[in-house]
Design goal:
Order of helices and strands: HH
Largest sheet: none
Helix content: 40-55%
Distance between the termini: 46 Å
Number of strands: 0
Number of helices: 2
Structural class: mainly alpha
Length: about 50
């Protein structure tokens, strides 16, 4: 096997989140006080939307 070269991702033109976007994200994230069972969420989504 030959060695594979890793292609680097150019992040020089990426600015990230601005203050407004961070505030919007925090506003819409919310918080869950109980643990979420992703299997139940998947089953609900599958049966509810089909």
């Amino acid at each position: 096997m030959g060695t594979a070269t890793i292609k680097r991702i150019d992040k020089s033109n990426v600015t990230g989140l601005s203050k407004n976007k961070k505030d919007l994200l925090k506003k819409h994230m919310g918080s869950a006080s109980v643990k979420i069972d992703l299997n139940k969420v998947r089953d609900w989504w599958k049966y509810e939307n089909n």
